[in-house]
Specification:
8-stranded parallel sheet; TIM Barrel
Amino acid sequence: MHYHHLRHTAMPAIGFGTWELRGEACAAAVREALVAGYRHLDTAQSYENEEHVGRAIQEAGLPREELFLTTKVRPANLSYDDLLRTVEESLSKLGTSHVDLLLVHWPNPSIALEETLAAMQDIERRGMANHIGVSNFPPSLVERAAEIIDISCNQVEYHPYLAQADLLARAHALRFVLTAYSPLAKGRVARDPLLIGIGKRHGKSPTQVALRWLVQQPGVAAIPKTSNPARIRENIAIFDFELTNEEMAAVHGLARPDGRLVDPDWVTSWE
């Protein structure tokens, strides 16, 4: 396993995403992921599954310090009081005194960024989060946020069909981890002839090639999500091979202007 070294915690480069997993199916998938060796779990208030993630963690019986746990504050909860209150609720559902990483899930232009980030800093000071960061912040907004707080992470859509050069440059300059969600482009990578070809050379699947391409980039993590036990195991088995510089460049070459898959109507700009 590769790790990214944050100030207080090592963050495993592959995490288990839980978006759209609910109820017992969510708990079962998280249990399966922990058995498969995942130690980085990603959830959010808006996924409405924090208590099921928490239950799976309790049932697994792993020491808390072995886990890297991320949750995200929903955009409606970004005022100072709402943020503090709802993060306490999230911790209660997760059955933990703190998360390793707390993120602002989406920007909310109707609430001052300074107010939101002041609340995030207070959460960190109180020991309720080891690290704080953002998600779905475009480059210009990341710059603004980084002037106010020390950002550990920006979690964004990133996969072979969507270039994130601007954000990656800022991640390196501002020293935050870029965590890739939808790293498999909602399954599209599995059918890609280039990724299939590279995979055959390494005895790996096209999915494993896409994930390896992400985590082989400096400061990039990925959080693939699946409820299929075989895929759960496959997605973490990517640390026993390496892509060549030529292969890395070829995968970068798959990016295209219409590659973005997550583009809700409330987003005004990705610039």
